[in-house]
Amino acid sequence: MGIYNRVGWEHTEYTGHTDNVFAVAWSPDGTRIASGGRDNTVHIWDPLNCQRLLTFHGHPTCILAIAWSPDSQYLATSCTSGLVQVWQARTGTIIHTYRGHTRFVRSVSWSPDGTCIVSGGDYGDNTVQVWQAFDGTHLYTHSGQYRIFSSLWSPRTARIASSCFEDNVQVWDATTGDHQIQYDGHRGAVYATSWSPDGTRIASAGHDRQAHIWDASSGQTLCIYREHTHFIKAIAWSPNGDFLTSAGNDTILQVWNAETGQRLVSEFRQHQHWIRSLAWSPDSTVIASASQQSIHLWLWQQSRY
Q1: Tens digit of each residue's pLDDT (9 = 90 or more) over 229-257
Q2: I need a labelling partner for 251 at 20 to 30 A (CA). Which of 56, 114, 208, 228 fits?
Q3: What is the sign, positive or negative, of the torsion defined by CA atoms of 166, 252, 16, 32?
Q4: DSSP SS3 for 5
Q5: Are residues 109 and 117 in contact, defined by beta-carbon separation less than 8 angstroms?
Q6: Which residues lie below 8 Å from residue 60, measured CB to CB, with a gap of 6+?
């Protein structure tokens, strides 16, 4: 991870896109970043030098979500036309096109074993669908929420959490679709969710300018973070489980303690516009944040705290 260990390196930027970037995801092996947005392309690039490795042109409309397979070999990407593409990350070859949704697909997530994908539809679709990743076989549809903003598979358990325009997050069985619990702690739309790496807690954030951490089994609120001044559109748990980063319409990226909710670092203020997506490097040392036409990489030096 060479550049990350250079003395004094704090921040760099990828500027390969020609329009707003809405999604960014770090490969599980730590070697690549994928990003996509309004220019209808997905870029795969090297975080060490910010050089583009591949451009994927397989979507007809704006990219909304990106997810790497657990083995870093494939990507699932979605767009405003309702399509989800599964493709090879090294070559850009399309493996399958999933057409089960009717409108915007704002979220995609792989099962921990890499065999299935969950995708969530916004606007006129309003469904969360689970399907086999490599042939698109539909397994079931979870309904009952209006405008799905996030749908995430737990990293350790057979559960999925989905959030929506209404003020709730639902947790349900990933194999059967059976409802387990509903979290109602927010006031207004819940735009973003993130599972803790051990699958025991969920962080959620949204229109009420708050980020909540709560127990994924009982729904009990454990912590509320109130440092943002505008809507929170993105939240991400560090892979080591110690930190959360959150950002949104106030253009400020904040890092805070996952146990206490205490902010741990002065705000990162390089962005001039809304931040729409966040991703941690697998070793929890670098944060990627997307806004307008660029993705910023921030060195997170845990040794300071």
Answers
A1: 999 999 999 999 999 999 999 888 999 99
A2: 56
A3: negative
A4: helix
A5: yes
A6: 40, 79, 81, 83
